[in-house]
Amino acid sequence: MKKVLVIVPFPMSEENRDQRRAQLQAVQLGPDISFEFESVRVAPRNYVSASDMAIADIGVLEAGLEAEKRGYDAVCIDTMSDSGMAALRSELSIPVIAPGRFSMLTALMLGKKFSIIALWPHWRHIYEKNLNELGLWHSCASIRGLDLTPNNQSLLAGKEEDVFPALEQLALTCIEEDGADVILLGSTTMHQAHAYLSEKLPVPVVNPGPLTYKLAEALLGLELTHSRKSYPTSPKPKPEVLHAMLDTAATFEH
Predict the structure, then answer these.
(1) Span 44-70, average pLDDT
(2) Would you identify the family this protein belongs to, as annotated (predicted)?
């Protein structure tokens, strides 16, 4: 049995983690793989500023640092920001997968141009980072968002009647006016809208969280992981320093 750690990028209760765990229901996985969801100890309130992103990177890195020693075969990071992915790849030899860049690359296996739909305009910098790093601006038809402050704990629960149709109209604008032939959900917090949008829209809709689970399954089956040439290890890692920092920082989260 292969075991995958899914890092939830905010401290939260087990009940709220269930909202994230529900993403497993959206994808068919084999009987020989399991997924365990754990929260970071420290995170920004949301991913708006450069300092927010630095805190997010540290929180995710610390949460996954011991994953390989603990017997996990892969790590998935449950945020489109890809926070901590590069850092964890430098520490671990097992696959580390994040949804931001992989959802964009998957979209290009399905169509020629994709659009990203989001809940919040303040997330735009997250998508721009991956588009810049991957050189994919020519393949991005548009980035459009609602002006809805996200709830990282309850996600879209209780807002379905208002939010789902609004996302549908946003996606249709991307398709009809911007030329998108694939739609990407701009956050794993939007996964509850995927089934609705897939039924309503005339193009594929990529659900980023479940995509990472299938990619983890595929990489493990293919016995592939990231290149050490791209993600070199530190000549003198200091995990004890990182854990000590987070021991103190975690007290401010309560």
Answers:
(1) 94
(2) Belongs to the HyuE racemase family.
pTM of the model: 0.91
- pLDDT, residue 152, reads 55
**Residue type for 129, please?**
K
Q: What are the structure tokens assigned to 127, written together? A: 């998508």
37 sits in the region (left: phi over 0; alpha: psi -120 to 50; else beta) called beta
> What local confidence, expressed as pLDDT, does residue 150 receive?
60
Domains of the chain (ranges; CATH) run 2-99+210-253 (3.40.50.12500), 100-207 (3.40.50.12500)
Of 38, 49, 43, residue with least CA distance to 8? 38
pLDDT digits (tens, 9 = 90+) for 234-249: 888 888 888 888 888 7
**CA–CA distance, 110 with 114 (Å, rounded to integer):** 9
Handedness of CA 23, 39, 46, 253 (dihedral sign): positive
Phi, psi of 99 (to 5 degrees): -80, -20
Query: Which letter, b or e, does each residue of 70-109 get, where b requires 16 or more Cβ atoms within 10 Å of its Cβ?
Result: eebbbbbbbbbbbbbbbbbbbbbebbbbbbbbbbbebbee
pLDDT of 1 above 80: yes
| 55 Cβ contact list (under 8 Å, min separation 6) | 42, 43, 44
Structure tokens at 142: 């548009």
**Nearest one of 125, 143, 132, 60 to 98, comparing CA atoms:** 60
- Looking at residue 5, its pLDDT comes to 98
